[in-house]
Structure formats: C-alpha cells, structure tokens
Amino acid sequence: MKRLAVEAKDPTDPSERVDQLIAGLTDWRGKTFADIRKVILEADPEIIEEWKWMGTPLWSRDGMIAVANAHKEWVKLTFAYGARLPDPDKLFNAGLEGNARRAIDFCEGDEINKPALKNLVRAAIVYNQSKSKKKVPAAPRAKARKPKRREAGPFFR
Length: 157
Prior knowledge:
By secondary structure, this protein is an alpha+beta fold. It has helices spanning about 15-25, 30-45, 115-135; strands at about 50, 55-60, 65-70, 75-80, 100-105.
C-alpha cells in the first residue's frame, strides 16, 4: 500500500497534518475523508484529533475511538472497540470477523449516513467511559506470611 507523503507546516499539530492529508487526496477520497472527519468531530466537542502510526489520523475521547485510512479503492474508518458497539444501522461492513475492531469501508459514490455515524462515535465514547470506570483499584492485599522454617529432621540433614 502506497502512503501519501504529508508535510505539515507544524509537524506537532495533528489537525494540520490531517488537513494536509485531505488536501493531498484530490479525488473523491478527499471529500469522503473530510466528511467523515467532520461528522466525528461534530459528535462530541471533547473529541481529540491525533496523528499516529505512520501517518494515520486517530480520534479519541477517554480512549481510542477510531482511525481512518485512504486506500486506492476506499476510505476505511476502523473503530477500536467496534465489536462491542451497538450498530443498529448496520454501518460496519469490514473487519466483522475480529473480536475487537470493526470497520466501515466507504467506496466511491457511497453516501455517509451522518446521523448513524455520529451515534456510532457517541457509542464508542460511552464504551470508553464505561471501560475506564471499571478500572477500580484493587483492595490492598494482606502481607504474605513467610512459611515457618522447619526444624532439621531426618529428611533435611
């Protein structure tokens, strides 16, 4: 898979890098990628846009929500915990065999079901928040007692 060379004005600004990535996609994928990004960011004002894994946009809030990649024939949006999310609108169409991730492949001409995608992003946030609430610190353990040393007997000489 060939990756786009992306040079941002400020290499530390993830949003600028995503802007550059989208600008470099001069066909239908650029518009699709931009639309997906807009829907994700509109789903919740506290979503953080990041730049990860060799040039991959990532969105998170209380944990990873999704990553996006532009391929030759489609734009893929992969949800980190998609297998655990409700998908009443049946948006997931790729990665269905996995135990954790699920993806949506958008091909040329596909319409983005924006309300359903927003709901999926919000469900990912709720999942992330419930996951972090479950991490309750363990109760302190009682000190383990050292076993008493046996007196030397006929078998221990």
